[in-house]
């Protein structure tokens, strides 16, 4: 199970390039439940993700299963994807015992920066104090889900 919060980012950290990063391309085959394919660095991944019904509106809670697939399988599924692929650079930033996944979007989402933080429990998420460079908590806003963005122009 995945428990996370998602935030808009006011300002990128000045030292962003010192953090580990990976280029990501992903596309969606279905949005409810979410069926996603992703190229993450040299790996190709198929993901099933289903939001837990009745979960907190300000928290993203989902069942998630990921499985590595071949390049050929990725390309086959990519041709069947809906909407536009998402392209982003993801930075992994350690912060107060957590890892912030900072996504810097490209192409038709250029200029959008989103930060996600995963938690071990709902209680942990409630105690989390974000850094100053975080903006609005958009965890419950569907417009900031990658599946929504892949099917709606900016």
| Count, helices | 3
Q: What characteristic shape results from the CA principal axes?
A: globular
**Average predicted local confidence, pLDDT:** 92
How do the strands line up in the largest sheet?
Answer: 1-5-4-3-2-6-7-8
* SSE order: EEEEEHEEEHEH
Proportion of residues in β-strands: over 45%
Number of strands: 9
Give helix % range: 10-25%
Cα separation of the termini: 30 Å
Which descriptors would you attach to this protein?
9 strands, 154 residues, eight-stranded antiparallel beta barrel, mainly beta
Task: Explain this structure.
Strand 3 and strand 4 (43-51) form a beta hairpin. Helix content is 13%, strand content 51%. The radius of gyration is 15 Å and the shape is globular. The protein has 3 helices and 9 strands; from the N terminus they run E-E-E-E-E-H-E-E-E-H-E-H. The protein has helices spanning 71-78, 122-127, 146-151, and strands spanning 2-9, 20-31, 34-40, 43-51, 60-68, 82-95, 98-105, 113-119, 134-137. 22% of the residues are buried. The mean pLDDT is 92. By secondary structure, the protein is mostly beta strands. An 8-stranded antiparallel β-barrel has the order 1-5-4-3-2-6-7-8.
Brief characterization of the structure:
The chain has 154 residues and is mostly beta strands. The chain is built from 3 helices and 9 strands, in the order βββββαβββαβα.
Detail the topology: elements first, then pairings.
Layout: E1 2-9, E2 20-31, E3 34-40, E4 43-51, E5 60-68, H1 71-78, E6 82-95, E7 98-105, E8 113-119, H2 122-127, E9 134-137, H3 146-151
Antiparallel strand pairs: 1-5, 1-8, 1-9, 2-3, 2-6, 3-4, 4-5, 6-7, 7-8
């Amino acid at each position: 199970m995945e428990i996370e919060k998602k935030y808009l980012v006011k300002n990128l950290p000045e030292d962003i390039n010192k953090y580990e990063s990976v280029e990501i391309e992903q596309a969606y085959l279905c949005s409810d439940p979410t069926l996603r394919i992703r190229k993450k660095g040299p790996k190709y991944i198929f993901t099933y993700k289903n939001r837990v019904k009745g979960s907190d509106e300000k928290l993203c809670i989902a069942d998630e299963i990921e499985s590595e697939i071949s390049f050929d399988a990725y390309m086959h599924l990519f041709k069947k994807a809906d909407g536009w692929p998402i392209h982003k650079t993801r930075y992994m930033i350690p912060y107060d015992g957590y890892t912030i996944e900072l996504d810097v979007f490209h192409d038709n989402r250029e200029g959008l920066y989103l930060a996600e933080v995963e938690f071990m429990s709902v209680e942990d998420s409630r105690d989390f104090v974000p850094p100053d460079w975080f903006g609005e908590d958009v965890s419950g806003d569907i417009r900031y889900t990658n599946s929504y963005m892949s099917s709606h122009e900016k």
